[in-house]
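Researcher: Structure prediction, please.
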Amino acid sequence: MSELMYSPKNAYEVLSAEEINEAQEYCEGYKKFLNNGKTERECVKYAINLAKENGFVEFIDGKKYNAGDKVYVNQKNKSAIFAVIGKESPEKGFNITAGHIDSPRLDIRPNPLYEDGNMAYFKTHYYGGIRKYQWTAIPLSLIGVICKKDGTTVEVNIGEDENDPVFYITDLLPHLAKDAKPIHAEDLNIVIGSIPENDEKEGKIKNAIMKLLNEKYGINECDFQTAELEAVPAAKAQDVGFDRSLIASYGHDDRICSYPALSSLLTLDIPEKTCVAVLVDKEEIGSAGITGMRSAFITDFLLALCDGSNARIAFKNSAAISADVSAAFDPTFAGVYEKRNSAFINCGPSICKYTGHGGKAGASDACPEFIAKLAGIFDKNEILYQFCELGRIDQGGGGTVAQYIADRNIEVVDIGVAMLSMHAPYELASKTDIYMMHKLCKAFYENY
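Model: Predicted structure follows.
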């Protein structure tokens, strides 16, 4: 990045064959993370298991920790924090990465079950920003928990095994679509069965479905009211292209940044500063709630790590990467991008100085001194990266957790993998960009 003129570099033109092979191998682990983490609960479970395999133990508030100790916090099975204790005092600051593990999906409503037209359905409530028509006519899995009033919890995962049934939302055939209107939220009803009971009661199909669920899970219809069930695409993560250079999957946003934030932390020995990876829930709906970035559980954990040190100084001296995706330039829809300030596939993670919309509304707008210091670290460690904005100024926009990190008086900037088809049920991203995000996070942990 030290040349007189700036131009994003394509990884396949500058990386060695060995590095490209490393990227391919690294992404096999990432695909396992995606396939085993279709929901935030599954992501937390998988991430904690990975951490335990690498010597992490559950954090105990009040316990004295030493340099090199590795700890984690599980927040309600939907968010998690991982930390490697550094040599220096907490007052020197923490090096923090924060990504989110929730993704757009369809949630099952509290009273979902009904029948009509000789079929039984679940009513849904979409979560996060989706284009509703994309969720019709694709196979869906049903994943989550049913928490019963007797204190027991039933885990549900249907559609992920190749022998499982899947679920489905119908779409209108083109022969009858002359006057068709857009798909509305109330149209996203999931087909769950069609065989009636052999009796003369009303609701014969609904009753038959409920009997099946009672036999398998021991639940009644009221138990849906205390359940958390999510409908997600049933498709697995797969390589794309003759050259296998890309990965298509559900949930890239933002597991594509959360996994590198975690995987790079797992490789640390004894860092100079305490390094922290936050995998957080609820970003897609504003980061509110007890498992979101706004929650006090993150501040409480950092305060506990201060262990008597001045927390205000520790926070002031901390640095954070808000590890979230950006939109890669798509020539098919070039009109919504400003090409000079767009991110490109295969050119490394993208640094987005500000997100928000319009006149930077909702952006934390990172300080130039901070960005320059990070860029210097990335250059020194031969990390490919690029700078970008999220499309044309008045075209739309988006937000990340950066503003809530900044609220804690922690220096922060958005850096993440650029991807195509963001928020679609099946998104697309580059393998070299994912691998370079892993290297970028590691360089940040070790050198900032």
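Model: The chain has two domains: 11-103+250-447, 105-233.
Researcher: Thanks, that helps.
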